[in-house]
Write a structure and sequence with these properties.
- This protein has 278 residues and is α/β, with parallel strands linked by helices.
- The protein is 40% helix and 19% strand.
- The strands form 3 sheets. It has a 6-stranded mixed sheet, with helices on both faces. A two-stranded parallel sheet has the order 1-2.
- Helix 5 packs across helix 6 (169-182).
- The radius of gyration is 18 Å and the shape is globular.
- It starts with a helix and ends in a 6-residue tail after the last helix.
Length: 278
């Protein structure tokens, strides 16, 4: 979904990962290629089971989800091959996104190889972390946890959101702690209906939600990191990138299921929300 959002916005997208030599893996590769997503970084083997997610819907709202999967198994050879492949892909890119779904591919060695290659190239890097999957992730350009993930990573209890994010003492302290812990240049905490909190300079910035209709929030975080890192790679400053990502998220939550946002949809939504013309 991250790659699909990048393609919808007009960027090239190359994905890295592992799938099984099974019907679901072959179907996934067909879908990726149909979207114009490059699959040079994907390997397939008989010992991997391709994850299949089944969403249960009622009245256009997701009730629950069932995942058919098993833990990804690594040996020394496969891990070395994955690190080499990820580094090679990163060396030819203008931006790098590490999207952790907790399915087993995003392990420390792979993350380290990706970060080293990106740092050598001087490209922006983004991290969308997974709750309860601790990694050493210092030095990304931007990290985009949601509120639950941010409190979990910081080891803090969430007392619940305050009406005004910039007066939410628990949230602000959690964000500051995470920025010290992860050392990203920018920390962008997504807050659902409360928008986003950006820590990039000396003062936190609240970016209100730009959603007009909300049908399904599935995959909105994917859109946020895709558009944010793409904007940074194109030369946007941290606030501009976060604002664009926020508007794009407002487009996709009005659609059913994991969805994408095109430049035309983004511009139309910005006009509908009264964004200033530039």
């Amino acid at each position: 979904n991250v790659a699909a959002n990048l393609r919808a916005m007009g960027a090239r997208a190359v994905v890295c990962g592992r799938v099984g030599n099974d019907p679901a893996g072959r179907e996934l590769l067909r879908h990726l290629k149909a979207e114009g997503i490059e699959t040079d970084g994907i390997t397939a083997d008989a010992e991997t089971l391709t994850t299949v997610k089944t969403r249960i819907l009622a009245e256009r709202q997701q009730v629950c989800r069932v995942d058919h999967e098993r833990p990804l198994m690594w040996d020394r050879r496969r891990l070395a091959e994955a690190c080499t492949l990820v580094a090679r892909i990163a060396r030819g890119a203008d931006g790098l996104i590490v999207e952790d779904y907790g399915k087993g591919y995003v392990v420390q060695a792979v993350v380290d190889a990706a970060q080293r290659a990106a740092a050598a190239r001087g490209i922006p890097t983004g991290l969308d972390p997974k709750e309860n999957h601790p990694l050493r992730v210092r030095g990304f350009t931007v990290a985009t946890p949601n509120r639950r993930e941010a409190f979990a990573a910081a080891g803090r209890h969430d007392p619940g959101p305050a009406p005004v994010p910039l007066r939410d003492a628990a949230l602000l302290e959690t964000a500051r702690r995470l920025r010290r812990q992860w050392t990203p240049e920018q920390l962008l905490v997504t807050l659902g209906p409360h928008g986003m909190l950006l820590l990039a300079g000396t003062r936190p910035v609240h970016i209100p939600t730009r959603a007009i209709e909300v049908y399904d929030v599935s995959g909105a975080g994917d859109t946020v990191i895709a558009v944010d890192v793409l904007a940074l790679a194109a030369g946007a400053d941290p606030v501009e990138a976060a604002e664009l990502a926020n508007y794009a998220a407002g487009v996709v939550v009005a659609k059913l299921g994991t969805a994408t946002c095109t430049p035309a949809e983004l511009l139309r939504h910005m006009r509908e929300c009264g964004a200033p013309e530039t």
